[in-house]
Amino acid sequence: MSRTEQDFLGQREIADDIYYGVQTIRGKENFHITGIPMNQEPYFVKALGYVKKAAAMANRDLGAVDAKVADAIIQGCDRVIAGDMMDQFVTDFIQGGAGTSTNMNANEVIANLALESLGFSKGDYQHVSPNDHVNYGQSTNDTYPTAFRLALILRLESYMTALRQLQEAFFTKGREFERVLKMGRTHLQDAVPMSLGAEFRGWGTTIGEEVDRISEARALLREINLGATAIGTSVTAAVGYPKLAVRHLSALTGVDFILAGDLVEATSDTGAYVQLSGVLKRTASKLTKICNDIRLLASGPRAGFNEINLPQLQPGSSIMPGKVNPVIPEVVNQTSFLVIGLDTTVTLAASAGQLQLNVMEPVISFALFFSIRTMERAVNSLRENCVVGITANEEHTRNMVLNSLGIVTVLKPLLGYKQCAEIAREGYKSGKSLHQIVVVERKLLTQEKWDEMFSFERLINPDLIG
């Protein structure tokens, strides 16, 4: 069974079990770019349903669309929001037309759902039209970015949760390792002693900062241009529609949306996306640094730092028996590099806007959603498959501290910088330990004073040194 639909370019035969129409078919055929349809981002599809529902409610309240038709449209939107029609959203993420194919995909699906609820056949658009009713007082240029922003707000919640859980995993390890003595390093050289727990706690703190930055960037997404229609002049929209539609959308979603004060500016502006992308890049940079640190601390096991042990997940070589690689930090590094690259995509696309519209918004949406999804998975994997299973080589790390000449810094308040430098130089040249030089040979400290100065508490709490 099929039906015939027509637009001004001609007719198309459409299988009768399909809810989208001729304009969606054209978009589907024209854009084979990523191979990823919009239904792979459920939040975006649901957001389109919310936006179309808010629009229908406003148009019904203003008498711009017949109440019976509007109510049928609202019913159709509810099914989209519920996820019932996910497989009907088939247009590619990256497309020409600034998202027109995706907007029409939503309009056609909702129109055909409304037609069925009213007892009409799919495609009988004289009763409920995708353009004249579902899209009344709207344009792709205001509905697509509004849905995009709502979808980002919804998607970011689970990503922020993943980051908070990673932060707590680092804090948990920080508490577990709080009395594990190790040597801190700067320039990859021995510096001063510290607690392994402090190192893990520091990673947790820096991840917590990212949650705050994401929250700040997400707040910028609440300003929307719904009701701007084509370029911000609200052409074809009923008087009072923009404020009313935004009010309905806020009530439906629980998100406190703000109608942009300048709809012309808001219709072409993509600054909020650049801000969010920059924060994602910032987090990716931090995760790269953390994973590099983890790989260094776990290196060896016998010819490296060997301070911590990572969970052994898989054989690491097709030629070297028994080798195990730090595969989770490695894959998080690669994900971070991808996100950093996609930030460049967002930057270029945002700067490519011309006059009253930025037609590159579809690639921005692809870049941001792909970044968030992959980062969330990487963060969860880092926590579940790596951090929670890390163990410390406590005896080894303590021996490295006590065998290091870097701990001469602890003696500086007692012996002065010049004498400590001479002691360190002698140690480097002779290979003698600090204890051998200071206590045994030069007798600058008694054994009791040495034990006091190099107790765990004094080594990791410099304020106690005196």
Structure in words:
Residues 11-341 form the Fumarate lyase N-terminal domain. One of its GO terms (biological process) is tricarboxylic acid cycle. InterPro entries: Aspartate_Ammonia-Lyase (IPR051546), Fumarase/histidase_N (IPR024083), Fumarase_C_C (IPR018951), Fumarate_lyase_CS (IPR020557), Fumarate_lyase_fam (IPR000362), Fumarate_lyase_N (IPR022761), L-Aspartase-like (IPR008948). It comes from Bradyrhizobium japonicum. Residues 407-460 form the Fumarase C C-terminal domain. The chain has a two-stranded antiparallel ribbon with strand order 1-2. A two-stranded antiparallel ribbon has the order 3-4. The chain has a two-stranded parallel ribbon with strand order 5-6. The relative contact order is 0.10. With 466 residues, the protein is mainly alpha-helical. The chain folds into 3 domains: 1-135, Fumarase C, Chain B, domain 1 (Orthogonal Bundle), CATH 1.10.275.10; 140-392, Fumarase/aspartase (Central domain) (Fumarase C, Chain A, domain 2); 404-462, Ribonucleotide Reductase Protein R1, domain 1 (Orthogonal Bundle). 59% of the residues lie in helices and 7% in strands. The radius of gyration is 30 Å and the shape is elongated. It contains 18 helices and 8 strands. It starts with a strand and ends in a 6-residue tail after the last helix.
How would you sum up this structure in a few lines?
With 466 residues, the chain is mainly α.
Key structural traits:
466 residues, mainly alpha, Fumarase C, Chain B, domain 1, Fumarase C, Chain A, domain 2, Ribonucleotide Reductase Protein R1, domain 1, 3 domains, two-stranded antiparallel sheet, two-stranded antiparallel ribbon, 8 strands, 7% strand, elongated, L-Aspartase-like, Fumarate_lyase_CS, lyase
